[in-house]
């Protein structure tokens, strides 16, 4: 395999990891509440801003030994993730819960509006928020060779985080009590409520996790591309949603598969179709439309019968 | 089997009708035949597969196997709209009206399948649309008036503000306005008190007198409700037809008694 | 329904609103504009509290005919009041053009309940087709306009296809995807001018007279924008009539029915496929007309005017004004064009305030400024 091909492969894996994480969030929200949270992209970009801001504050504060440095960087990422998760819970409380029994048009619009508000707040009130931001380089300038392909430390961290996060989500949903509550709610909201499951708590948890996953994707974006801007969230969110639909909305596995499928299509079409890189998004949306026409339930999703 | 209505030809026939959801057989090889102009009762405890049966007759579900013949033509695989056009109209257990619309709008939409002004007339000869609306509205109100004159005079009211009984009346009127050959009523008395139920059943019997060629298939879980009106009843239990005949024949069938006592 | 309300309340109410709008448009100073907005808000709240608002709206509803005539006269006079201020007429014309687009969008969002974020793209298709035919082939406006409308309608049908099997979220996602796809394609094609857009789009000509030219009558100079404004008003009137007839017809009833309950609709013989495709086609024809009018008005068209944000803005207008209420849609559009224009100093905060207004509306008044109501039938001898 040529080096160029390997580079594209690496690119699509890095991108696919982000799409999948965002898509899992969509799938969890949809499962729990039957809503699509269109501001998922806002969580993604908000987390990048929080992490980048905190990191540059910390790195300007002085020099530290490598172990202390590593711990604090990790703590900052964790803090930024938790903050984003809390924003997620706040969004649920303020702009999704009021519409629980309203027509589905309402939460579509309210979450889109939240996305705009978050994005604009970042643009207007973050120092130089309307300019592209540089994500601080926190990982050592080292790496390893995989054959002829160079993989940097940051990229290894991304890979590792992806695997850990996927495993963590799987274990959480299948092995913990709270996780099983979330699964129960997604199967039958009413029944779960009647069984005495604390529905509100489970939903808060879902939003915390979903937003945190988007936050992790945001960090990855920052680490890998090193530059980000306030308006990148909307597109990331829509791609993540598309990925969850392609995979089958409601299925966590589907979200992962969909995310990587979209990333591969996009990266390789952009690379190998002449003039493709300028319209790379057309290819990923093309895949989405194809699925919606031919298989609206997605790769994994099953056709559910309508209740009459 | 009674033979008293042999001279009428069958309108709807189902043969071996089966519906399987995953491992669960919601309906198991049901054979049923309804004649023209007949009121037929389909009775069974909750979860017996009655609504599933309706969903297959109206094309919402596609049967796993078996056939549904309406007037010598199989309707399996047709869309609900095509089946409606073929003359099968249903009501819903949960009373599915168009909730943000008025009584009259709901009733008018019952006549949707009849001839109506097209795009050209809508845009360029609007008076035709108006006269069409007025004519059909008069007819619609005449139908609903038979149930309840108050409903007919309050025709601009939103249906979401109505009581359950009134919603049912609007729904049945809407169905009548579609001029069905086969009217399917899904638990029309659900949620009503005994006197309201009696009145409704009386209304349905009157319908039969007014539209003698229309067949009516009524679902009920309470046997006594349709005792006076259905000339034939069939009993479903766990997806299987366990008895059929006149009400009196079926009433004393030991299997039926067992189903009801054991099923509750 | 009995017509027992006198038109007086509605008459006074409309006149006050009209006066307020005229004053607001005439004021140029930022702080006075802000003060006026606060004063209007206070006035509206007082009107609602004292019950005048409800009485006035009731009166307007009961006297639709007279009120329509009144609104027509008001609108026709409006540009004349600003003979010396062509910029105000320019903004008003823009607002009227967007009104045509939102009337179309209302068919999808309001009547049929399909939240379509791609109306901006259809606006763009109409504008680009009309502009390209004009710039490259020299066709007159009266050919390029219908061509733009037809192209937008065909695009609408095409986008309708993937929405047929989808509902709610998936449907909105389809429209978002289509909005991005068309934006990216237009941006990257060579023959559309790419990011540079299309300059020098000519003005329409009627009877040898070019619309949008300055006219001098003795000592009075009529600004060019005025004639274009009246042409747009004529188109808006046509669009309004078409929208109203569609709404109060079997089409409108069917759209409302599939919005309220798809299963029930199918069981009464309504074809979801047909109704949805019709909603998309008709709605995008309106957008195409608006786009063409826009391109020839400004004389320049670029992808900026067909982005996803435009689609989003159009949806906000419909929601703010009142879904499935034509008057509401017009009010929402005018507000969201004119107020931001007056507050240009806060240009940076425009998107933020759109977002906030949308959230607040959804929470506190989801039905919009003028909520929709069932079609009122007047059957003689009844009621």
Query: How much is the radius of gyration of chain B in Å?
Result: 19 Å
Which radius of gyration of chain A do the C-alpha atoms yield? 19 Å
Secondary-structure arrangement, i.e. CATH architecture of the largest domain in chain B: 3-Layer(aba) Sandwich
Largest sheet of chain A: 2 strands, antiparallel
Question: Biggest interface and its residues per chain?
Answer: A-C, 45 and 40 residues
- Intertermini distance of chain B: 28 Å
- Low-pLDDT stretches of chain A are none
- What percentage of the residues of chain B does DSSP assign to strands (E)? 15-25%
Q: Summarize the helix and strand pattern of chain B as letters.
A: EEEHEEHEHHHHHEHEEEHH
End-to-end separation of chain A in angstroms reads 54 Å
What is the number of strand segments of chain B?
Answer: 10
Sheet with most strands: strand arrangement of chain A: 1-4
Q: Based on the structure, what is the oligomeric state of the protein chains?
A: heterotrimer
CATH H-level superfamily title of the largest domain in chain B = P-loop containing nucleotide triphosphate hydrolases
CATH topology of the largest domain in chain B: Rossmann fold
Poorly predicted spans of chain B: 1-6
The best one-word shape of chain A is globular
| H/E element sequence of chain A | HHHHEEEHHHHEHHH
Structural class of chain A: mainly alpha
Describe this structure in words.
The complex is a heterotrimer of chains A (about 300), B (about 260) and C (about 375). Chain A is mostly helical and about 300 residues long. Chain A has eleven helices and four strands; from the N terminus they run ααααβββααααβααα. The model of chain A has no long low-confidence stretch (mean pLDDT about 85). Chain B is α/β, with parallel strands linked by helices. Chain B has two domains: about 170 residues, P-loop containing nucleotide triphosphate hydrolases (Rossmann fold, 3-Layer(aba) Sandwich); about 80 residues, no CATH class. In chain B, about 40% of the residues lie in helices and about 25% in strands. In chain B, the strands form two sheets. Chain B has a six-stranded mixed beta sheet with strand order 6-7-8-3-9-10, with helices on both faces. In chain B, helix 5 crosses helix 7. The N terminus of chain B is likely disordered. Chain C has 15 helices and four strands. In chain C, helix 1 crosses helix 3 and helix 7 packs antiparallel against helix 12. Chain C is globular and about 55 Å long. Chain C starts with 7 loop residues before the first helix and ends in a 19-residue tail after the last helix. The mean pLDDT of chain C is about 90. Chains in contact: A-B, A-C, B-C. At the A-B interface, loops of A face loops of B.
